[in-house]
Write a structure and sequence with these properties.
Helices cover about 35% and strands about 25% of the residues. With about 130 residues, it is of the alpha+beta class. Strand 3, helix 3 and strand 4 form a beta-alpha-beta unit. About 20% of the residues are buried.
């Protein structure tokens, strides 16, 4: 029996819906702004630590509000977050990392309804003991 004929309408597969078509799209810059604001208020973090290109951009324009925060979309409504910071001299980094993970995930999930799959904290710089005083 030849199968060159198209299948009858009732035999065709239903169209696959677009991934979370009902979910509004939140731009990564918006998510990064929420993350940056959250991280700036965590005790022990001196500042967000941007890469050299962000520092150059900051000199050319104004303050880059999302400096040090990278957002990666890993699926519909799911993200991974990377945060680069400068910390104080006497800050216990494992405790700080846990605090950053919890606060960032809580805020992004509550306010933006996104699934935060991973938050990675990179300590790019530690203030010297004189700067911490």
């Amino acid at each position: 029996m030849p199968t060159d004929e198209p299948a009858p309408p009732d035999m065709t597969a239903p169209p696959t819906p677009l991934a979370d078509a009902d979910r509004p799209v939140v731009k990564e810059d918006v998510v990064a702004a929420y993350v940056a604001d959250t991280v700036r208020h965590i005790p022990g973090i001196s500042q967000l630590h941007g890469n050299p290109w962000q520092s150059f951009s900051e000199r050319m324009h104004s303050e880059v509000p999302t400096k040090g925060v990278l957002i990666k979309t890993v699926g519909p409504g799911a993200i991974e977050v990377e945060v680069h910071v400068r910390v104080g001299w006497d800050v216990p980094i494992p405790v700080l990392a846990q605090e950053v993970q919890e606060q960032v995930a809580r805020r992004v999930e509550c306010l933006l309804d996104l699934d935060v799959r991973r938050v990675t904290l990179y300590v790019d710089e530690i203030e010297g003991p004189a700067a911490a005083s």
